[in-house]
Amino acid sequence: MSSFPARRSPGPAPALTLGRRATEERRLVDRYHVDGDLRAREELIRRFLPLARKLAVRASRGDSLEDVYQVASVAVVKGVDRYDPDRGAALSSYLVPTILGEIKRHFRDFNWAMHMPRDMHDRMMASRTASDVLWQRLGRAPTPAELAEELNVTVEQALELREATLALAVRSLDAPRESDDDGAEDLAAAIGDLDEQYEIVDDRSALAAGLRALPERERLILKMRFEDDMLQHEIAERIGISQMHVSRLLRRALDRLRTIAAAAA
Fold first, then answer.
1. What secondary structure, in 3-state letters, does the chain show?
2. What is the pLDDT of residues 146-176, one digit of tens each?
3. Is 172 exposed, middle or buried (0-12, 13-18, 19+ CB in 10 A)?
4. pLDDT band at residue 6, thresholds of 50, 70 and 90?
5. I need a labelling partner for 185 at 20 to 30 A (CA). Which of 47, 55, 63, 109 fits?
6. Structural domains of the chain sorted by starting position, each given as residue range(s) with its CATH number in brackets
7. Against a cut of 0.85, is the pTM above it?
8. In terms of pLDDT, which residue wins out, 75 or 60?
9. pLDDT of residue 65
């Protein structure tokens, strides 16, 4: 007797299976949207709930999977009802962006560690989109000035939007501290530690006073060099002077700031 198992007859080809699914999907869509058959609606929703769960698992990011799945399931119901078969796209192609859009709105509205006004939500989402666009365009992270220009806001507003993303999540005080040693200290142990950054406050105050004392053109050149991250030859072309002159003005302005800061110390 042969030790090999008997060969099974091959199942339907994948292309035929997909074709049958597409045909059945179209038939159910027509029964619901043309004939008003609510049983066809229920069947369509049932068929696409596994898709909702699959997308919810991918997008949950540590959040409650059941909450995200509930949002995705509601999106399936909305998508089945809002789908327009006359537009030509398959229902499955329409449902994927619909589900993902509902999940993104859920994260935007309910996944913040602290309350933020709706207009801040919307501006932050626009900032993240603009940052992604600039990443692709520049091949690097955009500077605050570049992001501000893309969003048509001030640099200060662009920095505010970037900092707002920190409200998306917070860490527990019981979480371990990030360090190179194997110590098991948690974040709560860091409360009350001296923050060396406080010493910078006086330096910034002195620097602000020094900047106000500089001529307007020197303040502009400092801004273009250190805030807008422009090169000296770019500054020279923008202002209409030589690169050597720009270098002298930068050096003179920095010397003045050092003198003023030393006097204020």
1. CCCCCCCCCCCCCHHHHHHHHHHHHHHHHHHHHCCCCHHHHHHHHHHHHHHHHHHHHHHCCCCCHHHHHHHHHHHHHHHHHHCCHHHCCCHHHHHHHHHHHHHHHHHHHHCCCCCCCHHHHHHHHHHHHHHHHHHHHHCCCCCHHHHHHHHCCCHHHHHHHHHHHHHHCCCCCCCECCCCCCCCCEHHHHCCCCCHHHHHHHHHHHHHHHHHHCCHHHHHHHHHHHHCCCCHHHHHHHHCCCHHHHHHHHHHHHHHHHHHHHHHC
2. 888 988 988 888 888 777 765 555 555 555 5
3. exposed
4. very low
5. 63
6. 19-110 (1.10.1740.10), 112-170 (1.10.10.10), 196-264 (1.10.10.10)
7. no
8. 75
9. 79
In the chain, what percentage of residues exceed pLDDT 70? 68
Q: How does 79-103 read in b/e, with b if 16+ C-beta sit within 10 Å?
A: bbeebeeeeeeebeebbbebbeebb
Contact 175, 187 (CB under 8 A): yes
Asked if pLDDT for residue 145 goes beyond 80, the answer is yes
Question: Residues, the chain, total?
Answer: 265
Q: What pLDDT sits at residue 18?
A: 60
Residue with tokens 């089945």: 80
Contacts of 243 (CB under 8 A, 6+ apart): 232, 233, 235, 236
Pick the residue with more confidence: 229 or 213? 229
